[in-house]
Design a protein that fits this description.
about 375 residues; mainly alpha; Mitochondrial carrier fold; two-stranded antiparallel sheet; about 65% helix; mitochondrion
Length: about 375
């Protein structure tokens, strides 16, 4: 039986968008070597496929090695975008719900700085007045709102990143990759905030007005009765003002930081790093990106909290009440800690989910420029 000199399969994704997660798993090793044995039926199998990371051929059929996933998601297929959407939903929903106590104190410090003067005193006041359960007031709208937002944010980011790269072409996609990251993340966040806005409005009202409602089930009808259905979107423009710069910084800085970490801080290329190392890079890059995000988006965050707390309030009222300095600084240290941790955890969970379903982690080595014809 004749066996071809070499079996090889190319990368599944354009090299200017992703680096392959494993150089071994992306190609097959030649079969014309001493490790192959012929059996009585003239079929061939690898002697030590698990050890060598190889595959065998039996009756003309490629047999995956035991350590290779039997089924992989094709890049940029509907299944790929569905996986990214599910990963984004998990990463944003779970992390935002986990930091509900910090978010609760931050919102109250923004709304009533006289009563909530510091982080420690804020926690003390909430514990005294509402008990331990009070720290998680508003967790349901937080979980649902940010799950929907995360699903749209990550899913549409992957879509728009590919879409804008295709429009630009391979060479320009490499040359202007940062602009593509910025445009893709901004486009995704516009959609994601439409999903988040009603939940954010109810969450802020529940968290900053004790006695208004216990949570989403009774808070949403009361809010609509008082403000009307359109009142749920009163804070949409300030939310865009907060979230779009935040998300642009979150994705573009993350991609850049991860690329620099693999280039300068990691002694081996990404495709030679273990999955644990790659996920550690994702968390570290996400945390640093989160610090930048908090600073850029904080003034709009103060506006959102003020507008959703005060009925009939305007942006002018918020600036007059908070002052320009207060708009940029009130609650900022706590938000830096919260957003840094939050963003790092989100990228860690998102990339862990991608690895779990057989996809490469986000970001990596600087993409090579395509060869000119």
């Amino acid at each position: 039986m004749a066996v071809s000199d070499k079996f090889q399969r190319g990368p599944l994704v354009p090299n200017f968008l992703y680096s392959p997660s494993s150089s071994v798993s992306n190609r097959l090793i030649g079969l014309e070597n001493p490790f192959l044995m012929a059996n009585s039926s003239s079929s061939f199998v690898a002697a030590e496929p698990a050890k060598l990371g190889m595959v065998g051929v039996k009756n003309g059929v490629v047999i995956p090695a035991p350590n290779e996933p039997a089924r992989k998601i094709k890049m940029f297929s509907p299944a790929f975008y569905a996986a990214c959407t599910a990963g984004g939903m998990l990463s944003c929903g779970l992390t935002h719900m986990a930091v509900t106590p910090l978010d609760l104190v931050k919102c109250n410090m923004q709304i009533d700085p006289v009563k909530y003067k510091s982080v420690s005193s804020g926690f003390g006041i909430l514990l005294k007045e509402q008990g331990v359960r009070g720290f998680f007031r508003g967790w349901v709208p937080t979980l649902l709102g940010y799950s929907g937002q995360g699903a749209c944010k990550f899913g549409f980011y992957e879509f728009f990143k590919k879409y804008y790269s295709d429009i630009a072409g391979a060479e320009n996609a490499v040359k202007y990759k940062t602009l593509i990251y910025l445009a893709g993340s901004a486009s995704a966040e516009v959609i994601a905030d439409v999903v988040l806005c009603p939940f954010e409005a109810v969450k802020v009202r529940v968290q900053t007005q004790p006695g208004f409602a216990r949570g989403l089930s009774d808070g949403l009808p009361k809010f609509v009765k008082a403000e009307g259905a359109l009142g749920l979107y009163k804070g949409l423009v300030p939310l865009w003002g907060r979230q779009i710069p935040y998300t642009m910084m979150k994705f573009a800085s993350f991609e850049t930081i991860v690329e620099m970490m693999y280039k300068y801080a990691i002694p081996v290329p990404k495709d030679q790093c273990s999955k644990t190392t790659q996920l550690g890079v994702s968390f570290a890059g996400g945390y640093v990106a989160g610090v930048f995000c908090a600073v850029v988006s904080h003034p709009a965050d103060n506006l959102v909290s003020f507008l959703n707390n005060a009925k009939g309030a305007t942006v002018g009222d918020a600036v007059k009440n908070l002052g320009v300095w207060g708009l940029f600084t009130r609650g900022l240290p706590l938000r830096i800690v919260m957003i840094g941790t939050l963003t790092g955890a989100q990228w860690g969970i998102y990339d862990a989910f991608k690895v779990f379903v057989g996809l490469p982690t986000t970001g990596g080595a600087a993409p090579p420029a395509p060869a000119k014809a």
